[in-house]
Amino acid sequence: MTDLTRADEPKFDLHMHSTASDGALSPTELVVKAAEASIRYLALTDHDTLAGLSEAHMAAREHGIHFIPGIELTCLWHKRSIHLLGLGIDPDFVGWQEYEARLVALREKRAETIATKLIAKRAPADILVRAQEQAGKGQIGRPHFARALLEAGVVSSENEAFDRYLGQGKVGDVKAEWPDVAEAIAIVQASGGKAMLAHPTKYKLTFSRLRLLLAALAEAGADGFEIAYPGISQEQIGLLLRVADTLDMQVSSGSDFHNPAHQWTGLGRFPRVETPRHIIHQIRSDVQA
Which residue among 44, 107, 111, 216 is the one 20 to 30 A from 129 at the CA level? Predict the structure, then answer.
């Protein structure tokens, strides 16, 4: 597979997070960092919120970056939590306000449950308040609890917090009644966006089970899935390319950037994949039209 971004083509990154959800940088700081990395096509995809899009769009305009409004929706497939990217959505679509309010309520309820379970494991009694302070005005999530546990001296790193308390199957891995994936696909597309499954190889599914998920998403009308992101192997990319061909789906790429301290997920850092199915071709074409 050759480099999708040739020397004469601007860099892009279609998956990143700001302080509007669980990222470490404000939307403006994120755009500035993207400009420093020579990124010219950028999608902000915060978890379950549109709150950072306006600020990021203004900053992108100042830095000559083509901005793609996005979101990363938490949803369910057969009771399993998965993430759906919405790329190129209209943030002013009338349905978003009610949908986002539902997600905020679900996250707040889940945070209270996480706090109760962590306190039972001898976390500080004010762990919820500490996590809320870490979240600020953003959507509260497990990374904020990880930072709160670190601040409280319960763990020595955020990674340890996930390994001991917050990772899959741990006490703080609390499930919520997220919307079904079909509903998430519907609102993304109703608002003019492309519905793409985020990081498909990170759900700890066998490849046969992953194929079932992707086929189900195709049947539900999803546009495609992410094919290149940190941690994916060339073998996995090849397998996913064949699935995209079989299901006639588009693909996307992104760093899933959260924090400049996480060197393995730097902005614009992910494998480059040559395929006409990549959504970046349509994005570039729309910009040039």
Answer: 44
Q: Which domains does the chain have, with CATH numbers?
A: 11-93+193-288 (3.20.20.140)
CB 267 within 8 A of CB 254: no
Distance between CA atoms of 160 and 253, rounded to whole angstroms?
Answer: 28
The pTM for the full model equals 0.89
Instruction: Express each pLDDT in 84-113 by its tens digit.
Output: 999 999 999 999 999 999 999 998 999 999
Q: Helix, strand, or coil here: 289?
A: coil
Predicted pLDDT at 2: 38
Tokens at 171, concatenated? 């006490």
pLDDT tens sequence across 2-26: 344 444 456 999 999 999 999 999 9
Enumerate residues 6+ apart whose C-beta is below 8 A from 30.
Answer: 16, 18, 23, 44, 56, 257, 267
Distance CA 22, CA 40 (A): 23
